[in-house]
Amino acid sequence: SFLPIWGAYDEGSHTNDNTPLLNFDRSMDVNAERQRLIDRIAIEDSWENEVYTKLYNNSFETGNSAIIAKNAAFVYWLGVDKDGAVLTSSSQYPRTWFYNRVNEILQGWEGKNLSFKGKVQQVWRAKENMLLMQAEDYLEASLLQSGVLYNLEDNKKNKKVIAWFTYELYSNSNNAISLDFKNDGGGF
User: Fold this and answer.
1) Residue 6: Cβ within 10 Å count
2) What does each C-alpha distance from 133 to 40, 71, 130, 141, 178 come to in angstroms?
3) Which residues are bridge partners to 80 per DSSP?
4) 129-166 residue pLDDT tens
5) Closest CA to 84 of 119, 45, 122, 117
6) What is the distance between the alpha carbons of residues 63 and 150, in angstroms, rounded to a whole number?
7) With the C-alpha atoms ordered 86, 88, 91, 95, is the resulting torsion angle positive or negative?
8) pLDDT under 70 in the chain at which residues?
């Protein structure tokens, strides 16, 4: 179960460097669904193949890095290319490439100067936060598979970034909403 631990706050600053607990109870059913999905992706004209191809290709793009991180983490968890072939060290893009892409993006968020002003920014930041949590969750789900790369130091860094981002989102949420009430005279 998800159990965040936030700790104390002192005049708007984070005084607890402990990261939130983002661990989920994992069972073998996670990988049972994984294999079913891989089998469907291998069918060229299936809707799963179409969606996965877009998701796979998005891992190489620039733009919304939170979406890219989540997609690359999903590819890493599945461990297959857009045709359903297993990603190996000799693949054009080996499985470790996706792992490194996710960590590069996640760890690059720390200390970013983000705008939280206004309810529209709050909604986008909340969505980005959820996408980053999903990315880390896919990396953790891959631990059930044999032969996957998962560095505990990366895990600690990623969770620290997510905790920082969650704190920033939370600590700015009341300010953003109250500014909107003052500016437009209404609520949502």
Assistant:
1) 13
2) 26, 12, 5, 12, 27
3) 86
4) 899 999 988 888 887 666 666 677 888 888 888 888 88
5) 45
6) 25
7) positive
8) 1-31, 110-111, 144-150, 174-188
Please tell me whether the overall predicted TM-score, pTM, comes out greater than 0.85 for this model.
Answer: no
Residue type, 125: R
The 3-class secondary structure across the chain, one letter per residue, is: CCECCCCCEECCEECCCCCCECCCCCCCHHHHHHHHHHHHHCCCCCHHHHHHHHHHHHCCCCCCHHHHHHHHHHHHHHCECCCCCECCCCCCCCHHHHHHHHHHHHHHCCCCCCCCCHHHHHHHHHHHHHHHHHHHHHHHHHHHCCCCCCCHHHHHHHHHHHHHHHHHHHHHHHHHHHHHHHHHCCCC
| CB contact at 8 A, 24 and 1 | yes
- What count of residues does the chain have? 188
- The CA radius of gyration of the chain, in Å to the nearest whole number, is 19
Rounded Cα distance between 47 and 148, Å, is 27
- Token reading at 40: 């469907």
